[in-house]
Automatic annotation (TrEMBL):
A GO molecular-function annotation: cytidine deaminase activity
Positions of transmembrane segments: 106-124
Taxonomic lineage of the native organism: Eukaryota, Fungi, Dikarya, Ascomycota, Pezizomycotina
Biological-process GO terms, alphabetical: nucleobase-containing small molecule metabolic process; pyrimidine-containing compound metabolic process
Gene3D superfamilies, per the entry: Cytidine Deaminase, domain 2
Family according to the record: Belongs to the cytidine and deoxycytidylate deaminase family.
PANTHER family associated with the record: CYTIDINE DEAMINASE (PTHR11644:SF2)
Keywords, alphabetical: Membrane, Transmembrane, Transmembrane helix
Domain of life, per lineage: Eukaryota
GO cellular component annotations of the record: cytosol
All copies of domain CMP/dCMP-type deaminase, residue ranges: 8-159
Protein name: CMP/dCMP-type deaminase domain-containing protein
NCBIfam families with a match to the protein in the record: PRK05578.1
Amino acid sequence: MAHTITAQELTTLSTKAIDAKATAYCPYSKFRVGACILTTSGEFITGANIENASYPVGTCAERVTIGTAITTLSSIIIAGHRDFKALAVATDIKPAASPCGMCRQLWGFFFSLFFLLDLFGYSIREFTSPSFPVYMYDGEGNHKVMTREELLPDSFGPDHLK
């Protein structure tokens, strides 16, 4: 399901992603990442990366953000959000950093299967359509946009398990 966003939504999305970098916990790499996801109900949900001295234990900003969105109860949706319009990711480097492969995989399925009840074991590849826009911001606020399909072409998903 393709979604379009307004200029005001894009401004809010980018501002919140850039501001979310300030909440990053990255004492080892000092590589701050902030993210913001826009739900179809109009809510903006943010997150930032969280590091651990044991690097594989850390969590990327994109996964923090989508996990928060999925598990956050809202006044509109009792079970958490299951449908999204766009994601923005902000870093301090130039050019903007692209989301890692694990985060890319996490986006796919949710936006086409938003009635899914059991989320355990699913990734974001499972939560977005191929045309889902991902806005990537550098340290100066410049951005580029790519679709999930451009970031994760020919990806493996639930449809392969049938």
